[in-house]
Amino acid sequence: MSSTIQERLSSLKIDDVTSETVLEFEADVDEYLLNLERELQLELAKKRECANRIGVVQAQVSELWDRVDKARRRETDISYRVTSWAQQLAEQMEMIKTKKQQIGFTMDTSAQISAEIAENLERLAEKREKVQIMREEIDIRRKLHKQQLRDVKNDIKEMEASTKHWNHVVDKVSEAIRLLKGQRDGLVERLREELEQETFQKKMLEDLEISLRNANLINKQRAGCASSFSTITESY
Fold first, then answer.
1. CATH architecture of 2-231
2. 88-101 core/surface letters (b: 16 or more CB in 10 A; e: else)
3. Within the chain, which residues score under 70 in pLDDT?
4. Number of other residues whose CB lies within 10 A of the CB of residue 113
5. Where in this chain does the entry annotate a coiled-coil region (predicted)?
6. Which of 105, 117, 135, 152 could pair covalently with 109 via S-S, beta carbons 3.0-4.6 A apart?
7. What residue spans define the domains of the chain?
8. What is the Cα–Cα distance from 43 to 141, expressed in whole angstroms?
């Protein structure tokens, strides 16, 4: 629309400039500026939406880091418990070994102790198996969380790039609006000056026509006086 206004202004002749023409140009320029301001509002809304999405993603990143930290603490706790169980079992075995050395046990007592040791070893194996399963689950979750974090970081980078793009667009639109407002003001001032010049020229023409009519009237009066004087002279 800006190019259309400039083309119309370039093709406009001074003789064609009227108050209606000025009003038409002002209306066209105001409409174009209004459209640009609407586009600017839309771009600003998109920018705010990107900022909100970045805030949500950052909150998700914080939540993921919390979950990873909890998983790490849980893994540490499990490792500590397994170590404690192993240490307790070793202490029990050492105590049994010491008692066996100090006291002569019968075969039944030895069998009972062996059964207890086997039972404890079986429990330890079950606990180790459970711990291994939990570690595998933690590893899977950790990998999943890392992938989610990578995806979130990529989303943040894309949003930041989009935000920079829209900031650039907003700056360009704002600059275009500023330039167009300046052009509009210059155009209005130019059209008003041309209209004032046209009005002044019309006033000069009207004054000139009045002067010519007055001059013709004076000439006619002089001619009448001269004719009357000639008539009076001839009668004498």
1. Orthogonal Bundle (1.10)
2. eeeeeeeebeeeee
3. 1-19, 21-22, 25, 29, 86, 100-111, 113-114, 222-236
4. 16
5. 117-162
6. 105
7. 2-231
8. 39
